[in-house]
Amino acid sequence: MTWPLVALLALYPLWWALGLAVLIFPIMAVPMAYALLRQHRQGIGLRLPPYFVLWLIFLAAVVIGVGALSSDPVGVVDGGAGDRILGVAFRLIEYASLTVLLLYAGNLPATGGMSQRRLVGLLAWLFAVTVAGGLLGTFAGEFGFTSPVELLLPHGVRSKGFVQSLVHPYAAQIMDLVGDPQPRPAAPWGYTNTWGNNFCLLVVWFVVAVWSYPTRRRTKVLAAGTLLAAIVPVVHSLNRGLWIGLGVAVAYVALRQALRGRFAVLIAGAAAVAVLGVAFVASPLGDVVNRRLENGKSNGVRMFLTERAITGMQQSPVIGYGSTRNTVGGRQSITVGESKGCERCGNFTVGGNGQLWQLLFAHGIVGTVSYLGFFGLGLWRFRRDSTPIGIAGSAAIVGTLVAMFWYNALVTPLAFTFLAYALLWRNWLQSPRALRGSGRFAPFTPRASAASPERALRGSGRFAPFTPRASAQPNNNTSGVPG
């Protein structure tokens, strides 16, 4: 049963327009969980991803942290557990839903479900959607509308900022970062920072889908045009975190190619980057970047929130405070607060300036170490996978770990990171058992997998024995600070 995952990803623009957006993940988690339960009842072993126990420890830390909701460290707005339980419940439900997504995506091959190519194609489709949303936000930044879900809510509920961010579709966030208000693309991901984070996570799958599988020349031309068009919203997003993330992705892929001795690919890539760089500097887009780099209005806020997160973690190091908190005043004075004339003057969210800082403050050392351990050890487990999926998936996880310093991961960025993890995990399961134990992967490629496995093995004469049955064996946002 693959329709829940297909509907979730392929129809995401529809969910966004309906006002469901991130709410669709808990909804689709229900049929996914049912499919896993039915698989278990049929006697088909439920596979668990490597180091899954660490993720369970993280979830336990999130639950245990609820007990600290009524505690307040120095320098935050006083409040009770009742005022914070809604946000905590939302995050816990989303974390649980994404856990189901990871297990569901990883177990699909056990029943002859979704192929690697199909899942990569769905992620590539979402990259195209991201580019389209970016262009919409760049050229029609004021675009927005009342969604059907929003209409169904009482006025007192839908007028709250948190609820608006969930159910009200809009194309961009309007911010004054370079001297005058500018639209920063957000559609269909809700926040500009989330848009940038997802752009970095999805672009690698777009490249794999088009250039690692047999595709028509017309498709390649359209894909190249999409990448060129994407430069415009990437620049106009004024998102330094996105720019750094793309640099990290390019550097990581280049390093992996160099380690494989594929210097021709490196030279071609470097030439393409050089040509794009010259064209970029000669265009008005270069001026936009220079203006953003010269206006680091959010730097002080980020440093202020980072200091508060570390201080809070020191006061409750084991389990944290269970959720985020709002600061008393701003970084220059406790008397400064948010107002109509200055919406970003104070009452900042501690933990809203990056996933790492939210983990430290809200979930303490236990939650932080288990979260990082799950992804870090998984990255190490799959390090020898040199297939296109292996390199792209590893690049996505590396990008996620780097972006933790300035981006929050919940909801969609973590979902795409989990799907990258699932693709790596499935590749690992499909490799011969002997190589799997040593951490090495058979050098099969997506192109070969498009045909039958037996034919690919017979034709090359270079592959280790491949047994499809081996894959059936069980084996163990608040984005308010500009980037």
UniProtKB/TrEMBL annotation:
Keywords: Membrane, Transmembrane, Transmembrane helix
Membrane-spanning ranges: 12-36, 48-68, 88-107, 119-140, 195-213, 220-236, 266-285, 356-377, 413-429
InterPro entries for this protein: WaaL-like
Keyword set includes Hydrolase: no
Residue segments, region Disordered: 446-483
Domain of life: Bacteria
UniProt keyword Membrane, yes or no: yes
Compositionally biased tracts (Polar residues): 470-483
Name of the molecule in the record: O-antigen ligase domain-containing protein
